Amino acid sequence: MLFLLFPDVDPGPGMQKPQLLVPVMATPNGTLVHPAYFLLVGIPGLGPDIHFWLAFPLCFMYAMATLGNLAIVLIIRVERRLHEPMYLFLAMLSTIDLVLSSVTMPKMASLFLTGIQEIGFNVCLAQMFLIHALSAMESAVLLAMAFDRFVAICHPLRHASVLTGPTVAKIGLAALTRGFVFFFPLPFILKRLSYCQTHMVTHSFCLHQDIMKLSCSDTRVNVVYGLFIILSVMGVDSLFIGFSYILILKTVLELASQGAALKAFNTCISHLCAVLVFYVPLIGLSVVHRLGGPTSLLHVIMANIYLLLPPVVNPVVYGAKTKEIRSRVLHMFSQGGR
Asked: Which one of 48, 62, 184, 288 is CB 3.0 to 4.6 Å from 14, fit for a cystine?
């Protein structure tokens, strides 16, 4: 194995500017070049001083996401009366958000605070896999929650028999397996590419589209497979969620009592907020990336919203709208104040 020393690339004022050692490996198809690490840009156009001050609200968001999601998981775990499908799915969603925020936010905070931009090549691929796999799992759980609301509102007498404890566990296992299986090939199809140009990742974390753009090899396989999984996973999930809510709305509008209709639809508000917070930035980010061109500030902002907002917002929304969780949290605070 040979090592080539590439010229320094200026990562921006005040940031570290390390040299990059690139291994060169001979393959049947030619020379395969992998960087020892990538450099994370953070938010393009912002200097180190602004990055430094942005680290503090980011740390606050991480604390909120961690405490909020952990509180929801523990409350549902302790309260046996919350061992119902809706709350079990919520516990799954909070667990995913807890892991997702831990995969992204600490590294971002370290980048903003210290200016250390390097992230190892394999570490970057691992982070990329976890981000995409966890996002797919979250999408599956949101679909399961939509199905739960559909059965509860449209077929209330069958809800207990359809969504039993074992069924909920199987749905959770299916969400975990699908996220792993669909996105497991991504690191390997990225490793088959050569990276002999820039090594600057124009985000604060690693995403498949951004790493792929750094390659000087043919990326058609990556483009096709990336489009396939985004359509077959998030695309299919969003269609079924939309279809579920069409049927729910139809059933609600057919209810004779306006009060009963409002009460039934009110049980969906928290889930609708979670769906919008997750899918609107995801769709926007996918459209912007598919349009091609250099990564802009819009790309970065939408990616940050897509990854950072749901873990922070979901516990707040569900805590405020779910009476059982809200009362338990208030009870905990009242006990702590004595």
From this structure: 48
**CB-based contacts of 199, cutoff 8 Å, min separation 6:** 6, 9, 20, 35, 37, 38, 39, 214
Statement: 37-331 belongs to CATH 1.20.272.10: no
User: What's the predicted TM-score (pTM) here?
Assistant: 0.86
- Under 8 Å between Cβ of 252 and 269: no
Report the amino acid identity of residue 158: R
Continuous segment of H or E residues that includes residue 39: strand 37-40
Query: Which contacts qualify for 214-222: CB closer than 8 Å, 24 or more apart?
Result: 214/38, 215/190, 217/192, 217/193, 219/193, 221/189, 221/192, 222/189, 222/190, 222/193
Query: Would you say 36 and 120 are in contact if contact means Cβ atoms under 8 Å apart?
Result: yes
Q: How are strands ordered across the β-sheet holding 2-6? A: 2-6, 20-27, 30-33
In angstroms, the CA 209 to CA 187 distance is: 12
Q: Alpha carbon 160 to chain centroid distance? A: 31
